[in-house]
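Students often ask why inverse folding is considered easier than folding. One informal answer: many sequences map to the same fold, so there is more than one right answer. In these notes we will look at a single instance of the problem. The structure comes first.
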């Protein structure tokens, strides 16, 4: 006799075949109750006539209703008549009453008779008892008959045992039959294989990633909230923010705190901080530490430090180490150094690498270099790029150049601009110009003005002398080294500004040269002030040139002091000229000092004549 009643999705309750599924839209409740009552009357009449099938179905109906006493007599009678569905449901009833071993006996009877649902229940019974071989046998019987719950339970057992191939086979079978948890877990398996979190880009990996997305989509469409969360994450990474937001919203409404948090970040990035705060609040109240941190940061930005501190503490209580780190940052900003150290330590001891780095900086500023170094090391070993760079600075300050270079190289390899600059300069000092150029290019590309200037000087030294231009010949385009000088100059690098001015002057572009010299001079460059003075003097603006030479000489520029001495001598201001000549002698360089000494002696003789 066939199964006229089957296990529900939980494997612990029964529903007779032919009943409407829970996914179909319900009719009016009163009408349903009336129809069920009429059906029960019909079944009871059939039972009175000795109809075994009616006994089985009536027993299943009463079992579903919770009338165990009424159900048991009918199910036992149908089971005695050989109805395997009744045997299965009798097992369910006995299991609900706490008679697991007797339930297993009836499930075995039904399973031997060919009930896939009973084989599944029996397999789960043996797994709960720790008898995995028996569990595998019965779950395999169920799965091979096409029972979706049996396939899922078998996949779960095989995965636990480490049989990945077998687990994937049966997980796929369950997913293809509509099991949403199986679809989600299959997607996770494929996701890990694709190396989505490891950067794999192989064709096989790409195919696995695409298939994983499809299974996430199926799980999400069937109401799996974590499936919706992961699908949203994939779509967000791909830039499909609108669809990502829809899936995050679906997942968040189903109670997934991580989705609510992710939706909050999506809304914040779109400029809607108020809506973002609503979803972060919902996620934080459900225990999401990341959302609590986001709320803390939002209130900190608004200057609401007490509220920010409360949310950071909530994040910490939720097990998020960022909460302690953010509390440390908040205290440090307020000058509460002792408390900042306390929170940094708490996060650092929990393994928070940036907290370790921040703690080390705090200790270093307090003069505790010995205490700072281990925390820098711990942070750097955990992957903190800033800590690796800071260790480089620490060792360089002690004169330990080899150790410093090792940490600079580690930080530079992770993209740290200033570390790449330090490596480049070390390579220059070692005479390895090609390696130096490589690191300087990295640092300059990362926005370092000093690296751009240093790279320009390296390229400038290689540049052949410009050919003589014939009349009417167009000027050459700017060289690469000039472009790097200009990039550094535009970032405010004074020596680069002076160099760009010199190159412009060499091209005959006096206006451009004066602009760059003036910019450098006003920023404090004595060479810029001196060169601007030269340019103005050549253009006939000696009074203004004197102003800039004075500024350069006062800043220690010997040539500017000599120029002022010559101007004063020409004007007959002998004492003033002698004073500037004295300054030029003391400032140098040597050839300037010699000329200034001769001029000074001449002015002295003139004054004593």
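Output (designed amino acids):
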């Amino acid at each position: 006799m066939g199964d006229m009643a089957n296990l529900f999705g939980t494997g612990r309750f029964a529903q007779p075949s032919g009943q409407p599924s829970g996914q179909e839209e319900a009719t009016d409740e009163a009408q349903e109750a009336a129809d069920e009552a009429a059906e029960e009357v019909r079944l009871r009449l059939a039972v009175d006539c000795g109809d075994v099938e009616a006994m089985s179905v009536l027993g299943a109906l009463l079992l579903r209703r919770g009338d165990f006493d009424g159900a048991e007599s009918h199910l036992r009678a149908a089971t005695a008549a050989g109805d395997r569905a009744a045997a299965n449901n009798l097992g369910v009833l006995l299991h609900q009453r706490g008679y697991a071993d007797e339930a297993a006996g009836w499930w075995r009877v039904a399973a031997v008779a060919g009930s896939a649902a009973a084989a599944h229940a029996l397999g789960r019974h043996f797994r709960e008892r720790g008898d995995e071989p028996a569990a595998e046998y019965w779950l395999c019987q169920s799965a091979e008959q096409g029972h979706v719950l049996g396939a899922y339970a078998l996949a779960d057992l095989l995965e636990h045992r480490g049989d990945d191939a077998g687990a994937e086979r049966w997980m796929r079978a369950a997913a293809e039959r509509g099991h949403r948890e199986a679809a989600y877990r299959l997607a996770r398996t494929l996701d890990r294989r694709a190396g989505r979190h490891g950067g794999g880009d192989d064709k096989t990996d790409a195919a696995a990633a695409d298939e994983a997305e499809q299974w996430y989509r199926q799980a999400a469409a069937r109401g799996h909230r974590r499936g919706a969360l992961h699908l949203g994450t994939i779509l967000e990474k791909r830039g499909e923010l609108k669809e990502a937001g829809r899936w995050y919203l679906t997942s968040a409404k189903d109670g997934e705190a991580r989705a609510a948090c992710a939706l909050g970040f999506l809304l914040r990035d779109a400029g809607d901080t108020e809506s973002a705060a609503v979803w972060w609040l919902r996620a934080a109240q459900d225990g999401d530490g990341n959302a609590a941190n986001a709320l803390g940061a939002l209130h900190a930005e608004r200057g609401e430090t007490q509220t920010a501190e409360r949310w950071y503490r909530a994040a910490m209580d939720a097990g998020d180490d960022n909460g302690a780190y953010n509390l440390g940052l908040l205290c440090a900003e307020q000058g509460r150094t002792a408390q900042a150290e306390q929170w940094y330590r708490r996060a650092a001891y929990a393994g928070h690498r940036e907290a370790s780095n921040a703690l080390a900086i705090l200790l270093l500023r307090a003069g505790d270099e010995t205490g700072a170094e281990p925390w820098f090391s711990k942070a750097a070993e955990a992957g903190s790029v800033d800590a690796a760079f800071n260790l480089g600075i620490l060792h360089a300050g002690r004169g330990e150049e080899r150790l410093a270079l090792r940490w600079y190289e580690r930080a530079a390899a992770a993209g740290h601009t200033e570390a790449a600059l330090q490596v480049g300069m070390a390579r220059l000092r070692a005479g390895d110009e090609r390696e130096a150029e490589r690191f300087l290019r990295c640092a300059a590309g990362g926005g370092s003005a000093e690296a751009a200037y240093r790279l320009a000087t390296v390229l400038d030294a290689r540049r052949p002398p410009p050919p003589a231009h014939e009349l009417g010949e167009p000027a050459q385009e700017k060289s690469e080294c000039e472009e790097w000088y200009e990039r550094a100059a535009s970032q405010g690098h004074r020596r680069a500004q002076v160099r760009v001015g010199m190159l412009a002057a060499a091209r005959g572009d006096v206006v451009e040269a004066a602009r760059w010299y003036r910019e450098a001079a006003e920023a404090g460059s004595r060479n810029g002030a001196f060169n601007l003075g030269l340019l103005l003097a050549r253009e006939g603006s000696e009074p203004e040139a004197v102003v800039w030479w004075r500024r350069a000489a006062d800043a220690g520029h010997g040539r500017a002091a000599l120029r002022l001495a010559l101007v004063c001598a020409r004007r007959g201001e002998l004492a003033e000229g002698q004073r500037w000549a004295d300054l030029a002698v003391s400032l140098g360089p040597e050839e300037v000092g010699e000329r200034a000494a001769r001029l000074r002696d001449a002015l002295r003789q003139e004054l004593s004549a």
